[in-house]
């Protein structure tokens, strides 16, 4: 735990969907953090000292260490929520849990099939398709009437799933889901969180995120 007065530290990895959604919420809140890009193959000792799970994202404040991406999103939005992401139906939390659990399980077993002995990636793809078909049937421009934390908690995983085989994804009867994802990929919010950074070293100058113009 930190005891100094510096801004919070966010250990992150650019392509990790969990880290993406943490950065999305922090950027929306305009809550400055020191961004430290971490190699997941050679994890920095300073990161391992504070992260109980050894996974990103990990947020270190002067009061606590948050090791779960959704907790980091909520922390940021409780600091400031100018776009009212937290203003959504209670069912939104259940939907986030569904995509964090069964959908992500199917995604992983499709994308990383060799890691799951006896798992059929085509079967797992169809399971993931079922979740997206249900989402297609219920959503409009956003999951609810307006954008919310549910959209930005789930979109990084839909992006990851779509990128397994974008031609297959685009061939599905999901015009609303596909348009939703494409709007996200073209958005300033997505561009803002996807700046590339070298892996952090202890002697490096701090990188403040979100960066100011």
Structure commentary:
The structure is a single chain. With 213 residues, this protein is α+β, with helices and mostly antiparallel strands. The protein folds into 2 domains: 9-83 and 193-209, Glutaredoxin, CATH 3.40.30.10; 91-190, Glutathione S-transferase Yfyf (Class Pi), Chain A, domain 2. It contains 9 helices and 5 strands. Strands 4-3-1-2-5 form a 5-stranded mixed β-sheet. A hairpin with a 4-residue loop joins strand 3 and strand 4 (65-66). It is globular. The relative contact order is 0.17. The model has no long low-confidence stretch (mean pLDDT 95).
Q: Keywords, please?
A:
8% strand, Glutaredoxin, globular, 2 domains, 5 strands, alpha+beta, 213 residues, Glutathione S-transferase Yfyf (Class Pi), Chain A, domain 2, five-stranded mixed beta sheet
Task: Please give a quick description of this structure.
With 213 residues, this protein is an alpha+beta fold. Helix content is 50%, strand content 8%.
Global Rg: 18 Å
With strands numbered from the N-terminus, the spatial order across the biggest sheet is 4-3-1-2-5
CATH topology of the largest domain: Glutathione S-transferase Yfyf (Class Pi), Chain A, domain 2
The SS-based structural class is alpha+beta
- Overall mean confidence score, pLDDT: 95
* N-to-C SSE string, H for helix and E for strand: EHEHEEHHHHHHHE
- Tally the beta strands: 5
- Count of domain modules: 2
The level 1 CATH classification of the largest domain is: Mainly Alpha
Shape: globular
SS field, number of helical segments: 9
Strand coverage percent: 5-15%
Low-confidence parts: none
């Amino acid at each position: 735990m930190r005891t100094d007065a510096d801004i919070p530290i966010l250990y992150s990895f650019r392509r990790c969907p969990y880290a993406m959604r943490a950065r999305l919420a922090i950027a929306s809140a305009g809550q400055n953090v020191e961004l430290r890009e971490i190699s997941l193959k050679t994890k920095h000792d300073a990161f391992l000292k504070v992260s109980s799970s050894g996974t990103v994202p990990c947020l270190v404040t002067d009061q606590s260490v948050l090791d779960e991406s959704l907790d980091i999103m909520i922390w940021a939005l409780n600091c400031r929520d100018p776009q009212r992401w937290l203003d959504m139906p209670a069912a939104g939390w259940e939907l986030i849990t569904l995509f964090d659990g069964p959908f992500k399980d199917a995604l992983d077993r499709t994308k990383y099939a060799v890691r799951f002995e006896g798992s059929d990636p085509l079967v797992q793809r169809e399971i993931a398709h079922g979740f997206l078909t249900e989402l297609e049937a219920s959503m409009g421009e956003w999951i609810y009437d307006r954008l919310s934390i549910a959209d930005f908690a789930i979109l990084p995983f839909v992006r990851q799933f779509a990128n397994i085989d974008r031609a297959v994804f685009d061939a599905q009867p999901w015009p609303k889901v596909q348009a939703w994802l494409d709007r996200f990929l073209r958005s300033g919010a997505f561009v803002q969180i996807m700046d590339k950074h070298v892996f952090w070293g202890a002697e490096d100058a701090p990188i403040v995120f979100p960066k100011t113009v």
